[in-house]
Write a structure and sequence with these properties.
The chain is mainly β. It is built from one helix and six strands. The protein has a single domain, classed as Nucleic acid-binding proteins (OB fold (Dihydrolipoamide Acetyltransferase, E2P)). Helices cover 7% and strands 42% of the residues. A five-stranded mixed β-barrel has the order 1-3-4-6-5. It is globular. About 20% of the residues have low confidence.
Length: 142
């Protein structure tokens, strides 16, 4: 049986995305998403926090149009990062590497967007002009 590593979450950003560049000029964007889970009237709800990383043009678009508190749908795969801390102890965490994303709360506004030039929209091959797909509709019957 083949292994499967696919994750889909819908939640709100807990902080503004951070755009960085590698030594080779590839962009990466890191952010965190909070996902609320409703357990029912007799059980306590809980929140899970997920660290996410996006690369390339997708990272540029996400850093420009997403901001703290904005809802987003993330599709990606899980990767475990391992390192040793300053005391020599082994540490690890699991991060979602973003394959795709959707704006989940309507059109993003430019008031919270990072500054910068227009970037290629990774999803349509056209410059990002402020026109975005309709938000995800949970009422679709399939």
């Amino acid at each position: 049986m083949a292994n499967i590593n696919k994750t889909i979450i819908k939640g709100n950003l807990t902080r503004d995305p951070e755009l960085k560049s590698t030594n080779t000029g590839t962009y990466l964007c890191t952010f965190s998403v909070a996902v609320n889970s409703y357990q029912g009237k007799d059980k306590e709800d809980y929140v899970s926090f997920f660290d996410c990383t996006a690369w390339g043009k997708r990272a540029e678009v996400m850093s420009k149009y997403l901001a703290k508190g904005k809802p987003v749908i993330i599709e990606g795969n899980l990767r475990q990062q391992r390192w040793e801390d300053a005391d020599g102890k082994s540490r690890s965490k699991v991060v979602i590497y973003v394959d795709n994303f959707e704006f989940a709360g309507g059109k993003p506004d430019d008031n919270n967007a990072s500054t910068g030039n227009a970037v290629q929209d990774d999803f349509h091959g056209e410059p990002a002009t402020g026109e975005f797909p309709e938000p995800f509709n949970d009422d679709i019957p399939f």
